[in-house]
Write a structure and sequence with these properties.
The complex is a heterodimer of chains A (264) and B (303). By secondary structure, chain A is of the alpha/beta class. In chain A, 22% of the residues lie in helices and 35% in strands. Chain A has helices spanning 27-32, 76-83, 119-130, 150-156, 175-185, 197-209; strands at residues 3-16, 19-25, 38-41, 53-56, 59-61, 66-72, 89-96, 108-114, 134-141, 159-164, 171-172, 190-194, 214-217, 233-237, 243-247, 254-256. Chain A has a seven-stranded antiparallel beta sheet with strand order 4-3-7-1-2-6-5. A seven-stranded mixed beta sheet of chain A has the order 11-10-9-8-12-13-16, with helices on both faces. Chain A has a two-stranded antiparallel ribbon with strand order 14-15. In chain A, helix 5 packs parallel to helix 6 (197-209). Chain B has 303 residues and is of the alpha/beta class. Chain B has one domain: Alpha-Beta Barrel (TIM Barrel). Helix content of chain B is 32%, strand content 20%. In chain B, the strands form four sheets. In chain B, strands 3-4-7-8-9-10-15-16 form an eight-stranded parallel beta barrel, surrounded by six helices. A four-stranded antiparallel beta sheet of chain B has the order 5-6-14-11, with no helix packed on it. In chain B, helix 1 (28-31) links the parallel strand 3 and strand 4 (41-43). Chain B has ten helices and 16 strands. At the A-B interface, strand 14 of A face helix 1, strand 5, strand 6 and helix 9 of B. The structure holds flavin-adenine dinucleotide (FAD) and flavin mononucleotide. Flavin mononucleotide sits between chains B (20-23, 45-46, 69, 71, 73, 99, 127, 130, 165, 192-193, 216-217, 220, 242-245, 264-267) and A (223, 229, 231).
């Protein structure tokens, strides 16, 4: 159930260059939110900027009735978020969209995250580990300083490997190189992916070649965030070989890898 | 007791606040957030004869005090709307106005005919002004003869109240308003979005895949107010005013300019509770001003 929520900021601090973690006291989001779902954040109390910003649920803490958001400052909306002080109350809409899914039969899974796409994978790993799955996490970052959440995954009990673009930490190269190796070494039941589009496409390609199902979280510019404006769509294959447009905010943001059509 | 009820084109509204076409879907999403019975009316998404895929993404660009969209009328087609959406909306005590879009005179007329007599449909808003559809759309709304012809054809195929939705992308909106009034439009609604564009300087590309799109939100409010006022001076049929409304005070401005009712569009995105808040705010403002009937405001501008 979508709700309009007013939540107090319990914490909002930098965790890496450009990256902030904001923790909010938000009972309904904590009790109803699922990994892969997101919220629309009103980043300022007035009309500027006009639209809310979609941000994934990064941590969902039912006991403490809090959720966290992990965001990268890339423009004015996220900058305003980073400047909002602890103790302030902000407005959010959520939980929104369809999140990641898993079944009892999946035993070994891999999570592939790039940049701020790592954010929702923390909540996902938490749930998957609670469900006693073997969780491999592959993280990609530009450089060591901008790598986020490695510790979170390790302390939960996931097996973590890292790739950096500049080789300052872990594998020198793409996170999808790590996935290629993992697919070779381990029998995976499911791959989950969230990150920049080129990474997502490569994850879909590799998993399809290996006949492993995969779920990808997509990003698109959003108007309402709840499915009313049909502003954020992606191409999804139809049975007759053609395509239709589905709403990233309501039918997604998580889609099956094989159903999405990418333009090149 | 303050009276909030108004009547537009023979449609009784319990208050003068509607939600604008294309910003509210068919109401299902917002029904999770508040009771739709609070609204005066719902104007549903632009409906075409056959299902339409719409334009490629990105379809949304944020701009100062507003946004551009190039959704391009993605909708499931009129038959689906009649079968699945209208019966659902009927459970609410709220006026349902179906927004009709076409590519040809025949398409407009056929959609109107199919909606005629459908239980739960209170009126038709004829969108002769959508800027997003190639090869039609706006041409109907920018030429008084074509606008008149659309309304005439629709009028002859339905008993329902006909509301002509006017485009602001014209030199003289009163000319179009007069033309549709002459062919039997029961009301006009204005304004639709203002044609615009946005550019990403890093990629040197337009932000919207469609290159151009329709501007809405507070950025267009002064344009909308001016046009409502001009049209109110010109025609005798009622006006549903819209364009950038986010507060009760905005709504009052439109009523003073001559609108009988108002609609909220992009304001639903900035704050999804905008419509009920505007209704509540309007009630409070009226009682604070000791005005006991909202209709006293309509066209009350002193010049
Ligand atoms: C479902 C969903 C979940 C998301 N979760 C997170 C998250 O957990 N953490 C996080 O840091 N970010 C997340 N994002 C991305 C985040 O919404 C954007 O970075 C944010 O809206 C940018 O706002 P801004 O005002 O700071 O930047 P703007 O000034 O609006 O834009 C800055 C740059 O970002 C680009 N951009 C803006 N919005 C989008 C978008 N929706 N998709 C692609 N590019 C965009 C612009 O083209 C521009 O180059 C998510 C997006 C979606 C759709
Ligand atoms: C995303 C979006 C979709 C729209 N779709 C339609 C439509 O299908 N038919 C129509 O007549 N107007 C459509 N409009 C125009 C609005 O109904 C309204 O006339 C316009 O946005 C001005 O009001 P606003 O500033 O309050 O949004 C759309 C507007 C937006 C923002």
């Amino acid at each position: 159930m979508i709700k309009s929520v007013k939540a107090e900021i319990v914490e909002n601090k930098p965790i890496a260059p450009e990256f902030f973690r904001m923790t909010l006291k938000a009972e309904t989001l904590a009790s109803e939110g699922l990994p892969g779902q997101f919220v629309m954040v009103k980043v300022s109390p007035n009309l500027e900027p006009f639209l809310r910003r979609p941000i994934s649920l990064h941590q969902i803490n039912r006991e403490e009735a809090t959720v966290s958001l992990l965001y990268q400052v890339v423009g004015k909306g996220t900058r305003l978020m980073s400047e909002t002080q602890k103790g302030k109350v902000i407005e959010l809409l959520g939980p929104l969209g369809k999140g990641f899914t898993w079944s009892d039969s999946d035993r070994v899974v891999a999570l592939v995250g790039g940049g701020c796409g790592t954010a929702p994978l923390v909540a996902l790993a938490h749930s998957l580990l609670e469900d006693k799955k073997e969780v491999h996490v592959l993280l990609g970052a530009q450089t060591k300083e901008k790598l986020v959440c490695e510790e979170d995954f390790i302390s939960m009990g996931a097996k973590v490997k890292v790739a950096t673009d500049d080789g300052s930490y872990g594998h020198h190269g793409f996170v999808t190189d790590l996935l290629k190796n993992l697919i070779h070494d381990v029998a995976l039941d499911m791959v989950y992916s969230c990150g920049p589009l080129p990474m997502t496409k490569e994850v879909v390609k590799l998993t399809q070649e290996a006949s492993i199902p995969c779920q990808i979280s997509l990003e698109e510019r959003m108007g309402c965030g709840i499915g009313a404006c049909i502003g954020c769509v992606c191409k999804v294959r139809t049975k007759d070989g053609a395509f239709t447009y589905k709403k990233v905010c309501k039918d997604g943001p998580v889609f099956k890898g094989e159903e999405v059509m990418f333009d090149d | 007791m303050t009276n909030l009820a108004v009547e537009v084109a023979g449609i009784k509204l319990k208050n003068p606040v509607l939600t604008a076409s294309g910003t509210f879907g068919f109401g299902r999403e917002f029904a999770e957030l508040y009771d739709l019975n609070l609204l005066g009316g719902v104007m549903v998404k632009g409906t075409t004869l056959n299902p339409r895929l719409g334009n490629p993404p990105p379809r949304i660009a944020e701009t100062p005090a507003g946004m551009l969209n190039s959704v391009g009328l993605q909708n499931p087609g009129v038959d689906y709307v009649i079968r699945e959406e209208i019966p659902w909306l009927r459970q609410f005590d709220v006026a349902v106005i179906v927004n009709v879009s076409g590519h040809s005179f025949d398409e407009y007329a056929e959609i109107a005919a199919r909606l005629d007599g459908v239980p739960g449909v209170d009126g038709l808003e004829i969108n002769i002004s959508c800027p997003n559809v190639k090869g039609g759309g706006m041409a109907f709304g920018t030429d008084p003869k074509m606008a008149a012809e659309v309304i005439k054809r629709v009028r002859s195929r339905t008993q329902l109240p006909v509301i002509a939705k006017l485009s602001p992308n014209v030199t003289d909106i009163t000319e179009i308003a007069r033309a549709v009034e002459a062919e039997g439009a029961d009301a006009v609604s204005l304004i639709n979005t203002v044609l615009g564009m946005a550019i990403d300087i890093k990629t040197r590309r337009p932000v919207l895949a469609n290159i151009v799109g329709g501007l809405s939100g507070p950025a267009i409010k002064p344009i909308a107010l001016r046009m409502v006022w001009q049209v109110a001076q010109t025609v005798n049929i009622p006006i549903i005013g819209m364009g950038g409304i986010t507060t009760a005070e905005d709504a009052v401005e439109f009523l003073l300019a001559g609108a009988t009712a108002v609609a909220i569009g992009a304001g639903n995105f900035c704050n999804p509770m905008t419509a009920p808040e505007v209704i509540k705010g309007l009630k409070n403002w009226l009682s604070q001003e000791k005005i006991d009937d909202v209709r006293e405001l309509i066209g009350g501008l002193k010049t």
